[in-house]
């Protein structure tokens, strides 16, 4: 680098700089000079005007210019000294990329084949948008969030911060707080009939992350994974993260069809929701559970049991998970979540795996996002330990059951003659599936509901069905909406659907 004094002085036209006071004058000046340097509009080794001169010409304080120059120096874009002369640094630079030539290139880099396969798959993944405040409808998958005891929760949170601020702020075991893992294991043993130890429990950010962890840890690219179809679209996305092939398999009234699974030949994993199939609501029969387990043992395959809403059973006691069957220990990974019992925004769920696997699975968890919030884990542990959790589960079950009854009564009153609910009626879960004759029906009914500002799930989107499938239906969530509002929503649906249904029937008869 030559002596600074030999470099030319650059004349900066103040007109070429347009400072924006909203983001701060110094910051705005810094950003504009930086861009000019990086684009080569200010040549290497050229001298910038003295700070006093530039300040005068721009009508700003000298301090503003000095701050901008100092920042550019700290970033290595200017050399010298703000008081004694600043020069544009000598930077080696590639020529700027040529502009996209075609609209397809401009649309994104996946068009040019440079993105990963995962990137391409994510383009076609549809995520259900979060409910907007005040939005009405029958949103599937949500519990009665209005029943969550948020004042009690915030009291527990405050107490935790008061008593143990030092525990909250660091890194912790990615598998989860030992105390919380022990409480979850105790709950699963006593309430769900699943014999497991705390060391088998791995905390996760909801069941979504647990599914992703299982898929990434146990599958190789190209491995086959079977899943129920219609099924939980977000699970399919997680199962395929590492490049496994996710194959949809048909259901019958007992659950995933074993014959279709056998026909696949080599298959390393099957993802299932046996307590309450999502979204059809089928409860997997005892025989099918045994058959599935035998299949997994024969093929050395894994069963990923997603027990997302197993506690919501309205007749009799909740069914024991498939993972509780004898012989399931090395073959079934059990996944649970607090999303449906507390609230989904908490992002706490868990997996129960063989004890020897958990340290490795915990390493994967640490690689992904390190751990769950320590405060949330402690507060949840207190919530469980002090008896609030079991009380809340009972309240949530009662509430969902009452809302289900209200929903059914309102439907029978308003819509039974024109769009009857399936029979037998739902005895579990937070939503029901109402099958429709074909995709055209689904599209028309959803469009009419949408026009009335009502949010309803369509089977084809919610259940991730391929476009050639003729299956169709509505996924109707009843648990998240208070009773009075449920009645009003069903009445509004009846009003907007009556003419649509009459038209569809006429067309079908022709
Ligand atoms: C089948 C299924 N699994 C899991 C979940 C819950 O996911 P998470 O625990 O990630 O909130 C849902 C939510 O709708 C679901 O439908």
UniProtKB/TrEMBL annotation:
Keywords: Aminotransferase, DNA-binding, Pyridoxal phosphate, Transcription, Transcription regulation, Transferase. InterPro entries: Aminotransferase_I/II_large, HTH_trans_reg/aminotransferase, PyrdxlP-dep_Trfase, PyrdxlP-dep_Trfase_major, Tscrpt_reg_HTH_GntR, WH-like_DNA-bd_sf, WH_DNA-bd_sf. The keyword DNA-binding applies. Residues 23-91 form the HTH gntR-type domain. Gene3D superfamilies: Type I PLP-dependent aspartate aminotransferase-like (Major domain) (3.40.640.10), Winged helix-like DNA-binding domain superfamily/Winged helix DNA-binding domain (1.10.10.10). Pfam families: Aminotran_1_2, GntR. In the C-terminal section; belongs to the class-I pyridoxal-phosphate-dependent aminotransferase family. The keyword Membrane does not apply. GO terms for molecular function: DNA binding; DNA-binding transcription factor activity; pyridoxal phosphate binding; transaminase activity. It comes from Roseateles oligotrophus. SMART domains: HTH_GNTR. This is GntR family transcriptional regulator/MocR family aminotransferase. It comes from the Bacteria.
């Amino acid at each position: 680098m030559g002596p600074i004094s030999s470099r030319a002085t650059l004349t900066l036209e103040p007109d070429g700089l347009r400072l924006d006071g909203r983001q701060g004058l110094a910051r705005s000046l810094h950003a504009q000079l930086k861009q000019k340097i990086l684009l080569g509009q200010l040549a290497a080794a050229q001298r910038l005007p003295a700070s006093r001169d530039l300040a005068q010409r721009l009508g700003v304080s000298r301090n503003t210019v000095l701050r901008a120059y100092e920042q550019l120096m700290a970033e290595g874009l200017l050399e010298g000294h703000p008081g004694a002369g600043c020069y544009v640094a000598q930077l080696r630079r590639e020529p700027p990329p040529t502009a996209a030539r075609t609209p397809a290139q401009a649309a994104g880099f996946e068009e040019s084949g440079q993105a990963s396969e995962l990137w391409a798959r994510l383009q076609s993944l549809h995520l259900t948008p979060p409910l907007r405040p005040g939005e009405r409808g029958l949103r599937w998958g949500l519990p009665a969030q209005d029943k969550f005891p948020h004042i009690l929760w915030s009291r527990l949170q405050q107490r935790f911060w008061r008593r143990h601020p030092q525990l909250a702020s660091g890194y912790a075991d990615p598998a989860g707080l030992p105390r919380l893992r022990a409480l979850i294991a105790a709950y699963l043993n006593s309430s769900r009939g699943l014999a497991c130890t705390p060391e088998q429990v791995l905390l996760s950010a909801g069941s979504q992350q647990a599914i992703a962890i299982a898929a990434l840890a146990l599958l190789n690219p190209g491995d086959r994974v079977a899943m129920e179809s219609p099924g939980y679209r977000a699970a399919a996305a997680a199962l395929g993260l590492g490049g496994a092939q996710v194959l949809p398999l048909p259901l019958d009234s007992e659950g995933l069809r074993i014959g279709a699974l056998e026909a696949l030949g080599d298959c390393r994993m099957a993802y299932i929701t046996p307590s309450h199939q999502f979204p059809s609501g089928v409860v997997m029969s005892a025989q099918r559970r045994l058959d599935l387990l035998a299949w997994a043992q024969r093929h050395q395959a894994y069963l990923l049991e997603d027990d997302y809403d197993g506690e919501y059973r309205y007749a009799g006691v909740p069914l024991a998970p498939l993972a509780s069957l004898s012989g399931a220990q090395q073959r079934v990974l059990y996944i649970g979540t607090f999303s449906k019992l507390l609230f989904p925004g908490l992002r706490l769920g868990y997996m129960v795996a063989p004890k020897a696997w958990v340290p490795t699975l915990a390493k994967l968890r640490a690689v992904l996002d390190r751990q769950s919030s320590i405060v949330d884990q402690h507060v949840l542990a207190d919530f469980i330990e002090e008896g609030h959790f079991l009380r809340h589960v009972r309240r949530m079950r009662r509430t969902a059951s009452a809302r289900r009854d209200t929903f059914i009564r309102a439907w029978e009153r308003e819509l039974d003659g024109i769009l009857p609910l399936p029979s037998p009626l739902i005895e579990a879960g937070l939503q029901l599936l109402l099958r429709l004759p074909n995709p055209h029906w689904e599209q028309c009914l959803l469009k009419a509901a949408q026009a009335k500002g009502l949010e309803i799930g369509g089977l084809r989107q919610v259940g991730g069905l391929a476009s050639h499938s003729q299956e169709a239906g509505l996924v109707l969530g009843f648990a998240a909406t208070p009773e009075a509002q449920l009645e009003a929503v069903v009445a509004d649906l009846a009003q907007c659907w009556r003419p649509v249904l009459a038209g569809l029937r006429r067309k079908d008869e022709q």
